[in-house]
Amino acid sequence: MSQYSFSPSGDKFQLPDQEDYPKEFERLREVVTSQRDLGREIVLVMGLGFVGAVMAAVVADAEDGKGSPTKFVIGMQRPSTRSYWKIPLLNRGIPPVSSEDPEVPLIINRCVNEKRTLTATFTYDALRLADVVVVDVQCDYLKESLGNVRNGQAEMKALEESFEIIAQNITPQTLVLIETTVAPGTTEQIAYPIMRKMFRKRGITSDPVLAHSYERVMPGKNYVSSIRDFWRVCSGVNEESTQRVAKFLKEVLNTEKFPLTVLDRPIESETAKIVENSFRATILAFLDEWSHFAEQNGVDLIKVIHAIKVRPTHSNIIFPGPGIGGYCLPKDGGLGLWAYRHIHGFEDDIFKMTPLAIDINDTRSLHVAQLTRDALRNIGRPIASAEILVLGASYREDVGDTRYSGSELIVRRLTEMGAELRVHDPYVLHWWEFEKQDEYPASSHSLRKFFRGQERLKDLRVEPDLKKALHGADAVILAVRHQAYLRLDPDEVVENAGQPTAVIDCFGILDDERIKRYFELGCEVKGLGRGHVKRIKDQVREEKEKMLVELPLKVGRSKV
Ligand SMILES: NC(=O)c1ccc[n+]([C@@H]2O[C@H](COP(=O)([O-])OP(=O)(O)OC[C@H]3O[C@@H](n4cnc5c(N)ncnc54)[C@H](O)[C@@H]3O)[C@@H](O)[C@H]2O)c1
């Protein structure tokens, strides 16, 4: 029976049959032959996700000093029902990822339809044609309990299989560049032995040309630039690999302006990535306790942060929002912990800060549910059966990536507490974490398992019309700093809701003027780290009381 894969916008694509594979390889072989005649190097990017899709385009866009393309890129993606749609979409010149960066559709269309230096495929046979293989598949970290990263493990199986398939197909001289964020030690102690063993099985006597260089991509407004015009770190398993990877990266990235750092060993490059993200997770987690302090003591943490940030030494202090989501920060430190024990064999417990930071970040958004409950109570509405609108499903502003977003936990906890949830997000068409919660991101990965009463969330749909989403809402949670939410007018919110609402600001989105207006309109406002709202509330109440006292006096006077 035929199987189908659906794109987020609902396009339906039939998965390839067995007989499609030889035809597809023939298509690739022909195009590669003509591209080689043009003197272009053939690069295969494995995994067309958030990183691979745009990395593939950046490589395909590379040119020599005379403006001629130097690479031909084959984007290779597993033909699963979940991901196959990315291939036909990309082959039409349409990005398989959504973002605010206008350069993403431009670069992909240019490379597919104008320069004709980019194509996508589903067959592993394509590996046989590559001079360079860039590995951009995922390496997940599975947590067994909420708020305890120690109780989890790296999921190495898919990655290990990928290394085997690569070594089974590539030529001995193909450079394999691992960009996936991996547990430190993976390149040398897992990938290298697997590939070498496969090489020997194939009768290849040379060693694999293998390197690691991690991505620092930020899929937001500067998505393309964050890959191409950004500093890179790399390292190879031997001298030849190091030279090859440095040469490749210099040819495809803007390394003149953003110089490359070449480290001695891949474990150093892998560790750099994990430390980089653990550092970020830690500075974000650090403010969680001060956020609670601020709420309880009339302090606006947003203004405090602005005050501190003027010190150049403290310019990277950052407000944590409703937890730290995204694919990387919640898991990368875990990969480090896991590697220490399971790759390097140590038994002692050296990690204190990294797991604590991740655990704090993983549970911070639960506090939003408490604030919502309290705000609703203050306007006389019980949380059970309240209609609550969450504005923003993704993990950060102006992207459509919902992976491990704080909003997901907010929805799950409030549902558990009996509320009815709705959601709006201009970048997200389907919130698969709910719509397909039995199988997405994978059955064992869904955060559903940490909450009760989640069944009905399968029916949660993203409402594209903000006005409709607001209609009848008892509470509005400003969860993400999307452009569309920064200037929301309180009068319009209340008018569209049809009643005063509870407003929960999770990300310092409301300025004091708007907070005041919400109170004047009869709303209740609460916010993460925003203790000063109580002052504004008192001020509005005093002004109202004063008016009530003055009104009869004025009326009396005008009668005299
Ligand atoms: N998303 C980010 O912002 C970001 C930033 C820096 C680093 N990274 C790292 O980059 C890596 C990739 O992340 P991502 O966000 O692109 O993940 P993703 O899940 O969006 O993409 C991975 C893709 O690889 C495909 N895939 C998996 N196994 C495959 C195989 N054997 N053959 C072909 N395709 C396969 C999947 O179907 C998917 O499309 C991860 O290690 C991640 O930690 C991500």
Enumerate the distinct ligands: nicotinamide-adenine-dinucleotide
Q: Main beta sheet: strand number and arrangement?
A: 8 strands, mixed
Distance between the termini: 90 Å
Secondary-structure-based class equals alpha/beta
Kindly report the spatial arrangement of strands forming the biggest sheet.
Answer: 5-4-3-6-9-10-11-12
* Backbone shape: elongated
Description of the structure:
With 560 residues, this protein is of the alpha/beta class. 43% of the residues lie in helices and 12% in strands. It is built from 20 helices and 17 strands. Strands 5-4-3-6-9-10-11-12 form an 8-stranded mixed beta sheet, with helices on both faces. Helix 9 crosses helix 11, helix 9 crosses helix 12 and helix 13 packs across helix 14. The chain is elongated. The chain starts with a strand and ends with a helix. The mean pLDDT is 95. Residues 46-52, 76-78, 83, 136-139, 158, 162, 180-181, 215, 217, 219, 327-328 line the site of nicotinamide-adenine-dinucleotide (NAD). Nicotinamide-adenine-dinucleotide is lined by residues 46-52, 76-78, 83, 136-139, 158, 162, 180-181, 215, 217, 219, 327-328.
